[in-house]
What does this fold into?
Amino acid sequence: KSFDFDIREGQRSFVYFEAVNYEAKVYLNGELLGAHEGGFTPFQFEVTGKLKTKDNFIVVKVDNKRKKDGIPTLNSDWWNYGGITRSVHVITVPDLHISDYTIALSKDGKNIEGQVVVDGKLTGDKVFLSIPELKKSIELQPESNGVSRFSFKAKPELWSPEQPKLYKVQIQLGTEKITDHIGFRTIETEGYDILLNGKSVFLKGICIHEEAPYKTGRVTSEEEILTLLGWAKELGCNYIRLAHYPHSEKMVKEAERLGLMIWSEIPVYWTVSFGNELTYALAEQQLEEMIMRDKNRAAVVLWGIANETPLSENRFTFLKKLAEKARSLDSSRLITAALDTQSEKNGSKLIDDPLGDVVDVIGINSYCGWYYGEPSSCSDVKWESLYEKPMIMSEIGGGALAGLHGELNERWTEEYMDDVYKYNLEMIDNISFLRGMTPWILMDFRSARRHLKNIQKDFNRKGLISEQGEKKKAFYRLQEYYKNKN
Ligand code: GCU
It folds into this structure.
């Protein structure tokens, strides 16, 4: 639709897209502004001087065709919903404006530190940053490159799932005032432990796809976000894995407000073209867009760089470089990947993927009782690791059609799925270096790979809840397990 625009001197304007899946070509009033590739991360184009007072129109040519050399590649187990899947904004800021900021608690927990970046012709203007509730207000003088760094002693109430405390932070430059709500916490690993605010924590989680409950399709409303997160809280989670791509900023902010730690990942999924430099550049671009968007979200504790990628030299080189890039962009969070490359040693599962050397936390996907073995065999499965690092069981589970009941040995019944959970939870209790879990998955989701007649009907049925909100037996088993898990 076309729109009018109030043109004023001394302003700059941008068109900001929250997400367009997959390739976008953006035209303003018939002129090509630019293109973007990647279906789940934000991008923008400057349109200063290109807008008219009346009847501006933006046209976006979107192509969600899957590409072998894309990120993700041709094959993925989720519906490739195409189009402008999140909101579009026309943003106007003063010529000299705040273009970026980072604010966090220092790793030693003693200081609040970060930087504010201003863009435009410096006029000696100062930047003011204040945290009213901490009675803190500082004045910053941007350097010639527009950057002003800060660090000051502070003892804020720390953000945690039990107490998801957020502080109002105000940043002002001239007439421009930005307000954000920031949580302060530390996250690190020590041997097999994950430490939140210096204390070992067990991540009681669940995987979530960006599939809308009830109407299905991509999540587009706050109500759908609150439904999904409400189910995760009802399950007893303190943590969620946003699979397999960055979800909306709103999802991340609401999870933070509700006290849910987050594993956020880019869709380097399955058989990506690891030998292709353009594919690597795409992965790095999406990683940077994800980190730049959510780097101030205390709830995000893990950046996931891959899911179930097959072993190869190219894959190791690609992911090692990606992990290094992630650390260069954000040295404060933990880097992880979901692996399914574990080998067998004397009847035990052995975590020996070379990527274990690269990540901070090792994610393991393992479908005992579903893709291998009988459910009852799972409680005896033992796990060993070459790495003295925390492990998260990033996927376990099985499928059932909600409402389908039958014998324990009847696949696709709720009873069979519940049995898969029963014995996997016993297995999990025997993994001494496990520090978290996100069973696959909160809710059934649409996938073109899943067309078992009368059962899947184009839905992956591993949800603890159907897409119509029907809770399956396994939901209550996991809920009970989390209630008793410290
Ligand atoms: C894989 C993969 C998921 C997929 C799931 C399944 O582990 O990570 O994206 O949906 O298994 O097979 O259901």
